[in-house]
Design brief:
Number of domains: 2
Largest sheet: 6 strands, mixed
Distance between the termini: 22 Å
Number of strands: 6
Helix content: 40-55%
Strand order of the largest sheet: 2-3-1-4-5-6
């Protein structure tokens, strides 16, 4: 996934101000703007509401998005009857600023339609996912009209597609799977259009095989529709279903590298012996821990993936070939082969990585360059190891092109 030179995190106006700050007063003037943006990345919340009628698979979808099984600690409670009595938030286990909200089914006796949006505090959610296991109801349509009135984005998910196809197979019916999926999708779209929803987004999903059917299309649609920082947060919170998602995460994290390095360059300009090196290592340590968590290489993420694919976690850990997944110490950082001994970088290399203030950054000196090289090397190393884990988890043939490799 390629990004334009106007970063996911900065608007064109912000980039213009950033360049002016560098040109006028160098790093010290621009650093607060970059620090503010990094703080936004740490503190911005993404709240996703998941609603629909009871028994539609809301809780199963929330668990799948967080790579949790129904019996895992912190999993949303599942069942065929309404188990949610109030809006219940479920935070992402690795990125707690991402929260999925399980909303009670609309149209029940407890939550009649006319009071639903007020009771559920619709204003606080960034987007809505409306789930149905069969056909979208009149209540679902009423719900979308209220969401639209508030100016929020909404998406329809038709779950349990695997059950529909399995039922057809059990009846011994011969059919073309792609044609049947298209029939189901078109039926949902036409029904919603007749009910007054002109251009509904409908995605066919299996909560137990997210990689199948329309999940990839759903994730890319949300990636486009979400604004700036929230788009990045969403991408980093996706489960590692295939190698493409891992690569998308690398591209998002790469945009954070130059900001971290610039902060290091600012501190490196302070004439205090030892301060520059100490700050470089501190920033690099924090960056590596963050990269590792987003790429699913921390112990908890590896265990969740092992549970999901029903393999021993030791099998996944065995393919990890980097010292960056254990305890990270300053000695490990200074010993990295892509680090302190190779702090040279070209304008072409920086331009390739879409840094919006290239010309000014070259005045930042060795502190910027060392930190940039260390973080870039660490990110690339961790990404390749994350891909090895995905291949081991999913039993992917190493000879198959990466773009074709996903859960099956």
């Amino acid at each position: 996934m390629a990004h334009s030179s106007n970063s996911s995190f900065f608007s064109l106006e912000e980039i213009s101000k950033l360049k002016s700050s560098f040109e006028m007063d160098g790093l010290m003037r621009a650093t607060p703007q970059i620090q503010k943006k990094l703080n936004e990345l740490d503190n911005t919340e993404l709240n996703i509401a998941v609603t629909g009628e009871s028994g539609s698979g809301k809780s199963s979808f929330i668990n799948a998005m967080r790579s949790l099984q129904s019996d895992d600690e912190g999993a949303a409670q599942t069942g065929t009857t309404e188990t949610t009595m109030e809006p219940t938030g479920y935070r992402h286990p690795s990125l707690p600023n991402v929260c999925f909200w399980d909303l009670p089914g609309i149209g029940t006796i407890i939550f009649p339609t006319e009071n639903y949006s007020k009771e559920m505090q619709f204003n606080k959610y960034d987007l809505f996912i409306i789930i149905s296991a069969c056909r979208f109801s009149e209540n679902d349509v009423k719900l979308t009209k209220e969401i639209k009135r508030l100016g929020k984005n909404f998406y329809f998910i038709r779950t349990k597609i695997d059950n529909d196809l399995r039922s057809m197979r059990k009846r011994g019916r011969k059919f073309n799977e792609e044609e049947e999926l298209e029939k189901i999708r078109n039926y949902c779209v036409r029904s919603l259009q007749k009910a007054g929803i002109p251009s509904p987004h409908v995605f066919l999903i299996s909560n137990f095989d997210l990689n199948l059917y329309d999940f990839d299309l759903l994730s890319k649609t949300l990636d486009v529709d979400l604004p700036n920082i929230k788009r990045s947060i969403y991408t980093l919170a996706l489960p590692n279903l295939n190698l493409e998602i891992v690569e998308r995460k690398r591209e998002e994290l790469r945009e954070q590298v130059w900001m971290m390095a610039t902060l290091s360059g600012a501190v490196g300009a302070v004439p205090v012996p030892g301060v520059s090196l100490a700050c470089n290592i501190g920033i690099v340590l924090k960056g590596i821990v963050h990269f590792r968590k987003c790429l699913g290489l921390d112990d908890a993420s590896l265990q969740r993936l092992a549970n999901e694919v029903r393999k021993p976690v030791e099998d996944l850990k065995a393919v990890v070939k980097t010292p960056l997944v254990g305890e990270i110490t300053p000695d490990i950082i200074t010993g990295l082969h892509w680090g302190l001994a190779s702090a040279t970088i070209s304008a072409v290399e920086l331009a390739f990585n879409n840094i919006p203030i290239i010309g000014s950054i070259f005045g930042a000196g060795s502190s910027f360059l060392v930190t940039y090289k260390l973080l870039t090397g660490a990110l690339d190393d961790l990404t390749e190891n994350a891909k090895r884990v995905v291949k081991a988890a999913l039993g992917i043939d190493k000879n198959v092109p990466e773009q074709n490799q996903s859960m099956s």
